[in-house]
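User: Watch each token:
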Amino acid sequence: MNEVGSALAGTPVVLGLVPGGSGNGLARDLGIPLKAEPALDVLLDGRDRDIDGGILNGHLFFNVAGLGLDARVARDFQARGGRGILSYVVKTARAILDGRGTACVIDADGQSVAADALLVALANSRQYGSGLLIAPSARVDDGVIDVVVVPRMPLVRMLRYLPRVLAGAIETVPGVSVVKARHATIQGTSPLAYHVDGEPHEGGVRLSLSVR
């Protein structure tokens, strides 16, 4: 989706999505059926829809980008392979248990957030996939990206608040901040690894975000 969408963005060509991934976050958010035949019916009989694209360090994304925990998981997927929800859970648990945070300062449309972050999610749509809502108020066509900052926290505290995340109420978790922005910069203390729609990249100490 990321590779094809990046090539077609800004052209008059309509992109149709037949979900075949392990999470299918964008398809779920757009209400596209997860089975091929009804998804093809949407391509034939559905309506065209313009959506936003985020741009992180020159790379387009359409669902969610980010750094920290999910960037490490994306890199692990690339290095080790193994798709599916079980593999995702195992890789996420491994990344959580290593205890690392990402020290950064985020300036989002003039609002500054300093954090030792477990993750920073840059959400165009609401979810990573499989119903995990990282930005419940995000909309794919509102002209802004939801910048969700989740602070590093002990595992016990993380497990305590997991039900809120699963219920789509991450914004009520203490320490979590959500800022809607058209432009943002993320300044780290060391080079920042990040991902766009699950595709891992290595960046410098400063990342720039905008929305098309």
